Amino acid sequence: MIASRVGHDRRPYLYASTTSTYDETGDIDFIAVEHALNGRPVPLTEAEKIHAARLLDDRGLSPTAIGRHVGADLADVRRWKANGWQPGSRRAESQRTNAA
To answer: Which residues, 6 or more positions from 41, have their beta carbon under 8 angstroms from its beta carbon?
Structure first.
């Protein structure tokens, strides 16, 4: 007989913040970010995606897994990381590749 216990085989719940629910300066809803960190589908702003991606990268997730969690392309995740977890310009990148 195969049985599973309630709560068994669940990853630890990841928290975006333990004290705040919103960052006014960065326009980040930490509750939405927390849902994304834990694999729940939620619409995120670009700032929230970048913040969640940085936290997941700190946890050792691959860029592909990070993209799945935050709803972003692999290229976006790599660009954010290369820019120090800041939004990067797609136009600047495409101009750089066309000039090469």
So the answer is: 71
List the structure tokens of 79.
């660009």
CB 88 within 8 A of CB 80: yes
Q: Tens digit of pLDDT for each residue in 23-69?
A: 878 889 999 999 999 989 999 999 999 999 999 999 999 999 999 99
Give the Cα separation of 16 and 56 in Å (integer): 10
Interatomic CA distance for residues 70 and 72, integer angstroms: 6
Pull the structure tokens for residue 19.
């004290």
* Model pTM score: 0.75
Q: Where are the domains of the chain?
A: 22-86
* Ramachandran region, residue 62 (left: φ > 0; alpha: ψ -120 to 50; beta: rest): beta
The helix/strand/coil state of 33 is helix
